[in-house]
Amino acid sequence: MQTSWLRHKGWTYGFRTTVLLYFVVLIVLPIAGVYVYAFTDGWAPFWESISDPIAWKAVLLTLKLALIATVINVLIGTMIAWVLVRYRFYGRTVLNSLVDLPFALPTAVGGLMILLLLGPNSWVGGMAEKLGFDIVFHQPAIVIAMVFVTFPFVIRAIQPLLEEMDASAEEASYTLGASRAATFFRVILPQIAPGIAGGAMLAFSRALAEFGAVVLVAGNIPAKTLTASVFIYGEVESDNNLGAAAVSVLLLTLSLLILWFINRVQRRGGRA
């Protein structure tokens, strides 16, 4: 009996140690390494790197476009999640499976699809050019690329909440004469708000770091279409690792804050 207990405890400790080692080696050490390298020469070189006009304009542009993509995903993702949960129609299963397609595809493939569908040689791109505006190699293409790669986050965060929602409050609202819009905003929306917030933060964080799709469609013009991730790549290619690490620290810090906020929202939602 004691031998069996010792084996069980040994297996448990070994499993925990393996998981912790995996976490430390693949996540903690790389993140810590970026922070340490960014401040290797002190605060002054770090500040000089992030205060470079091209660098901070790239970060600000990334924040702006990621925010726009997140708003689009919140609006469209909420509607799609609602349709997938509340309606039954032919092809629903296929559509539900296609939601996860951006997770399966390499992001460079997504960028190539946008380039082929919306580029100047495409029908849509040609029509847009005749109307006086361009899509590819301009900011709209970056937003589309960010929307594509972050598309599933809001949908998958809202779906479980809609499926587990108690229908009694909704039915009571209709019984009391409330309209569909009033019922949605007063009864349904408060219950799915944690999912919307969590999915939006994940989409925003993912959009900040997108590279593969963006680099193909952005044009990478400083202060106009150069995003932070592409700027980091360019700094590494130019052998300016300190500049790349400095901007990486900004993105990492923001992503960690977003993850902390998501955790807080989920905890509050769980307690509610």
Quickly list its features.
272 residues; mainly alpha; single chain
How does this model look, in words?
With 272 residues, the chain is mostly helical. The protein has 13 helices and no strands. Helix 3 (53-86) runs antiparallel to helix 10 (180-209), helix 6 crosses helix 8 and helix 8 (139-164) crosses helix 10 (180-209). The two termini are 44 Å apart.
Task: Set out the fold topology.
Blueprint: H1 2-38, H2 43-50, H3 53-86, H4 92-98, H5 101-104, H6 107-118, H7 123-130, H8 139-164, H9 167-175, H10 180-209, H11 212-217, H12 228-237, H13 241-271
Helix pairs in contact: 1-13, 2-13, 3-8, 3-10, 6-8, 8-10, 9-10, 10-13, 12-13
User: Strand tally, please?
Assistant: 0
The chain-level mean pLDDT equals 83
The rough form would be described as globular
The rounded Rg comes to 23 Å
Order of helices and strands: HHHHHHHHHHHHH
| H/I helix tally | 13
Transmembrane segments: 20-38, 58-85, 97-117, 137-155, 211-232, 244-262
Membrane topology: Multi-pass membrane protein
Protein name: Molybdenum transport system permease
Family: Belongs to the binding-protein-dependent transport system permease family. CysTW subfamily.
Short description:
The chain has 272 residues and is mainly alpha-helical. The protein contains 13 helices and no strands.
